[in-house]
Amino acid sequence: MSGPTFYKWVDEKLKDKLLPNSVVVMDNASYHSVQVEKKPTISSLKSEMQNWLLRHNVEFSGTMTKAQLLLLIKNTQKEPVYRIDELLKASGHTVLRLPPYHPDLNPIELVWVDIKNNIAQNYINSSLDEKIILLDKLFSEFTAEKWQRCDDYVQKNENDYWSRDSRFDNVIDSFIINLQDSDSSSGGEVEDEDDDEIEDEVETESMSE
């Protein structure tokens, strides 16, 4: 799948069939993530770098080298804007992007597992043309109940992540507090030891005199 092919499919086949104000859940596959405007790279023309900085209101000097301009570009924090997101937004929809490396939060991954297993177990020796026809059949037979089970499973995973995050935050907070208490206690002891050493030195000097 390529970015242009996916964009064309969403534009011509999907966006107008969605219910109003739909939320489209999408992972970060490369063909989902074609940017409206990518940052220039070292292979870009110097004029392209300068124009990018101008568009983003970043000051630079006309005497700067490409390496210096590239450093400015890299240090300019801009959230990426994706073509697919903008296309769906223009039709009144919202794109919800999943965190990287979390297929367990994507119901379609479970659907694909079911479909692939079905083909592998029952139709492994069929031709490519037969598999294409079969895919249409299997998807059309994938019931609402099956979809709901996939959604429920993903919802459970999401709730588990929230629960773990909350517990992890509490552990980190208590760890920080304990460290601060420990530092305070250690600081007091060190100060007392330093005071004792100073007093000993003073007494020694007095005896010497």
Automatic annotation (TrEMBL):
Compositionally biased region (Acidic residues): 189-209
Annotated segments matching region Disordered: 180-209
GO MF, any single term: nucleic acid binding
Entry-linked InterPro entries: RNaseH_sf (IPR036397), Tc1-like_DDE_dom (IPR038717)
Annotated Pfam families: DDE_3
Location of the Tc1-like transposase DDE domain: 3-124
UniProt protein name: Tc1-like transposase DDE domain-containing protein
Organism whose genome encodes this protein: Mythimna separata (Oriental armyworm)
